[in-house]
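We close this part of the discussion by returning to an individual protein. Part of our work consisted of pairing the sequence of a single chain with a tokenised description of its backbone. No coordinates are needed to read the tokens, only the vocabulary itself. The amino acid sequence and the backbone structure tokens for this protein are reproduced below:
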Amino acid sequence: MADETQETEGGKKPSMLLLIVAVLLVLVLVAGSIVGTLAFTGFFQKKESLAAEAQANESGKGAADAAAPGASAAPKLMTKASPEQARFEYRYVEFEKELLANLSGSKRFMLVKIAVMTRYDDRVVNNIKRHESAMRSAALDIMRQSAEAEVQKPEFRKLMAEKMRTEFNAVLDRLENFGGIEEVYFTSFVVQ
């Protein structure tokens, strides 16, 4: 009888050892597949490239080139070659359609066509085109708040362009973490 208990206990030890080895093997395979998947998707490379961009921004590119929080890098000013001094390239983007809004407290309406100017690279131009609908909505809100008496003032167009510039930059900053619009121009302006 003593021999039977030793064989049973001896038989349990190898099966317990096999179970532990099998569990460890499964854990190694799972960990290896996770690391392999992360490496294949570029998870480790992204951290290195973001760190390199941050280091490049810290190396003295200036406030205009500093990255906004949460953004990879801010757009860069586009320069023109000029022998006497650095000049910036002006880029204009005109909204496709006119904007029509009633004046506040009046039966009159305002019809405008808008263009915006930036000196930044294609990212800002693409952001303007991508978010034109949101910017049009902000412009219409500003136009609807205008009273008939305000429209008669000589500085009205200048003040309205400044309000629109501020709102457009706020929209782009909220959606893309960078504004970049420097001027708003009216290419057509009608009040009837």
